[in-house]
Fold these 3 entries.
Entry 1:
Amino acid sequence: MKKKDIEKLTDSIDNKYIEEAVNFNNPAERTKFRKPWIIAAACLLAAIITIPTALYAFAPNEPESFTEENHTEESDTGESHTEEKDNEEISYPDIITDDINHTNIKLYAERNNGSIFTNEEAYSYSWLEQTDSELYDKLIYNGKTYLSKTYYSWIEEADIGRSLGVHTLSGTDGIDDTVHYAEFEIFEINGVPSEYCVAAAMDDVYYPFHADVPKETLGEMVHALKMYQNMPLVRFGVNIKGNETTYSKINDEKRIWEILLQCTDAKYNKEMSEVMFWQSDHEYVSFSATSRKLGLNGNIRVTTDGYVWTTLFGYARVYDIGIEKANEIIDYALNNSVPTSRVCNQYWICGHIAEINDDYILIDDSDLCKNKEEGITYKLKANDKRIIRGIKYNNFKVGDLAVVVVNAYGYVDEYNGNTVYGIIDFERGHIQDDDIIVLE
């Protein structure tokens, strides 16, 4: 976001909400901090993120000219095939085909007049207030260190392979730096080499843990995690003068990986990685590169001057694939695609608290809907630690406006009183005009 956009947004927020946020007397203290991925994103985004049509994804690697949507799920892989090129037969491994995340959560902007404004600030809660997936992020397995990449999304059970036994995980208390240990069962992930990625059973689901992946060449990075089978490159946006688009989808779902697999010898360019991280004058096509199975979320950009650029592993890495191959990818994307919708990385459920009891909290959004008859009453489980601490720190009571943040794989169980699953956070909202402001 540009500075003038930030000033415009902050200037539009009623001073009484800012004063209320500054002077709000929490019943308990929680420590503010910047999460690692937020620190990286801060180089590209400002402290306040706007979601123009409300419940759209937060994409820390998005191009400035458009908001990169995030592909969220994978389907069955395609079949192997060969292709004749320059009299040389090239054999391709199975390449994943595309599927999108199908959530039944209604988008706020579709049912309301306004948008949601939130920020990047996070909090360090006490140890006992957090879930296991938030606490334990380090595994030593077969002499290698594996780190959790995200506690916002989990792996589908169908992708979980054989058990690798029970192992000890560790986590460090963000408040006093005490190291804690606990045992969890570890599993293989189907179609992913356990040498580089495994799953841990935590909080009744499975979370991915990564070992360090070799990345000196594009081929090493791609083959280590079998990205061509586990990460579709289908949806993209464009940052090329005269060709700016919103969101498009490749017609041939395998073609981009087929071209990239011809560039596996492309070497990591450290100098260009540093240059491109700070410069924004490169033109490129940016593919959504998100894999639920791998726990990776980001973009792979192909530039017109011959580079592949990605921050999938937390920092910029650039590979020199050459202008010819880069433009083959770009030309194919531009000439063989159709407009498509974006896929969210997070959703927001907003409404007034209708009831609080020992078993659940009810959130009613009728008053926020264009048509009140379309209102929905959502149920949040009261034993969810994210809900417990949200009530504690926001001092929630019946009638308050609440904002429930749900991950991309969350959903509403319509057969169980609209119970919400996949909750990330639970915060207080403020209405200003038709918008909802979350000030932390």
Entry 2:
Amino acid sequence: MGRRITYLLSRYPAVSHTFFLTEIRALRRQGFDVDIISINDCDRPIEQLTHEEREERQATFYLKSSGPAAILAALWRALSSAPLRFLRAAGYAARLSRGAPRALLYRMFYLVEAAVVVERMRRAGSNHLHVHFGSEVATVALLAKQLAPLRLSLTIHGSDEFYDVSEYHLGEKMAAADFVFCISHYTASQLMRLSEYRHWRKISVAPLGVDIDKFRPGPPRDATDPVTILCVGRLNAAKGLHVLLTALARLAPRFPDLRLTLVGDGEERRSLEALVDALGIRQRVHFAGVVNQDNILPWYQQADIFCLPSFAEGVPVVLMEAMATGLPCVTSRITGIPELIDDGVDGVLVTAADADALAAALAELIASPEKRRRIGTAARHKIATRYHLDANFEALGRAFQRQLARLDRPGVAEPELSGLPETVSPSPAFHLISAPPLSAVAPVWKAEPPSPGDASVPPTIAEAKPRLEVETHG
């Protein structure tokens, strides 16, 4: 049996956080024994889950669904086995509330949940807790570490965690964590801003990735077909979709056949539908609703442009997916997105909330199939060489192994480090540094998967050239 890690997640599986599933399954393939605790139930009925999601649901411990008896038993065990430690944890939870009655109530709920997490880890024989996001779920983990001598690591995405620092206690979480992964240098910079210099050495930048074999270009689009813009994501205020609809209305007179497809659902759907009617573009906009991972690929392959005009993001996986399928992407110049997209090379960046700039960028791509092809080709090249799922998750697994081995040697002094984040990089076995020429990763406009040896597709991991890259960034 491999190294055991407990993942604590707010909701799993979840259609808006598919990277949880891909990461966990990738770590298991590397020999890790990953136990999952989800505070909330899965976000969909079982009949709407993919096969992989059903397997994960079956193997996941759902905290709030474990029942009052199990929750009370865990709370009693925490109190009776180490009463002073429990009281100190309760006092710590109270201090986190900063005297606000509502916050105090929630911190006490989190303490109860933390007791259940500790009990589940005890039963599973696990002493390492890993959490995605620095929000409330990480507060539960922070309190769990107060209740028991467990190890704690975090993956921080941004940017929501950075908007209410006092609510999310990021400074305390950085101090308590044994190590931290950030999905971008932007995310790392914000954690560095919020924490003491002595904790910076805990940070590693570990980019996410996507499966370029799954997310591949589709059959050719006829140049005479109406241009379709695609957006995939939750229909919430942070995605900037009202700006996209406004830009679409401004483009309508020039491009009478232009269409927009919105894949996803959320609290802003009614508002967006009302704006569609007010702008007179109902016939141009299709609300497709939620689409799971098994069915999402055709939506990318049947589009001409991908647009994500967000106000706040980490580094969106949907952008990586779209780029991998050879779609030219238009998105906001915010947070970690410029680390993914080089403006004008493998995507187009615009000022957030600027409908005129968004409309102008979209118009340029709509009017130029050749520019769409060129940017889409470069986009897939970028994903194949820097955001390859297997390569980046292999590197993440090695980083986990290295950090866990370090924690197993508590008497060994840590090496003198610069205090600056290190980039988690793929090993030479993944052969990705000498990137193939763009012609080798041009979109393959075929309905069927390419045959082996087809020189027009990205090389597989085994076929590409060697890569060895270890960087330190400030």
Entry 3:
Amino acid sequence: MTEPSPRNDIDSPYAVAVGARHEGRQDARASALDSDQLLGGQPAVTIIHEGARYVLRATRNGKLILTK
């Protein structure tokens, strides 16, 4: 049996929450983005979250790594 793909099933527990906070509350529904949209063809992008910088990188093996 295979796991559901987060790209195909927004209600999946594997879906990624993006910008889920609003006025101290967490939205009940998570947004899903394709990693190609997020990376925009680059090997890495910088994400600013609550004043902290994070780098999201795609590896040669197709994995994503988020570092602070």
